[in-house]
């Protein structure tokens, strides 16, 4: 049987799947437009909502009365109601998730900015030292390595590391006090 505008409701009531395919083809654009307009802020659930609308039509076609209005208006009303239900169900959790994601992103940005500022300050403090001495200071104070680890990494005796750090501290104090 060919499903058309004249018999699709009758066939839907008989649970003819071709009638369901017909309304999806003919009224799917309207349903999708209503869902997109009302559920713009919960995009992840739009497709699920559209499917639920057609399920509601499939199981609730007996409630449709052509004397009360056009089928197009009836399916649009079902769609709008379904959107409201999805908003009630999913919007509060999405808003909380969005807020949490935003706060985490802001925290991450602040941490990165502080790291950059700290790196600039450290580089400014260590600018007056030789390259090798700067590396020793960074390994010890920033990376948290022990003198033994630095000694092993750089292939320098422990005593030389202590001496370089002592001389470097004195030089930094002198340079730092000059700037004040």
TrEMBL record:
Residues 120-172 form the RNA polymerase sigma factor 70 region 4 type domain. Signal peptide: none annotated. Residues 29-90 form the RNA polymerase sigma-70 region domain. Keywords: DNA-binding, Sigma factor, Transcription, Transcription regulation. GO terms for biological process: DNA-templated transcription initiation. InterPro entries: RNA_pol_sigma-70-like, RNA_pol_sigma-70_dom, RNA_pol_sigma70_r2, RNA_pol_sigma70_r4_t2, RNA_pol_sigma_r2, RNA_pol_sigma_r3/r4-like, WH-like_DNA-bd_sf. One of its GO terms (molecular function) is sigma factor activity. NCBIfam families: sigma70-ECF (TIGR02937). Belongs to the sigma-70 factor family. ECF subfamily. This is RNA polymerase sigma-70 factor, ECF subfamily. It comes from Asaccharospora irregularis DSM 2635. The lineage of its organism: Bacteria, Bacillati, Bacillota, Clostridia, Peptostreptococcales.
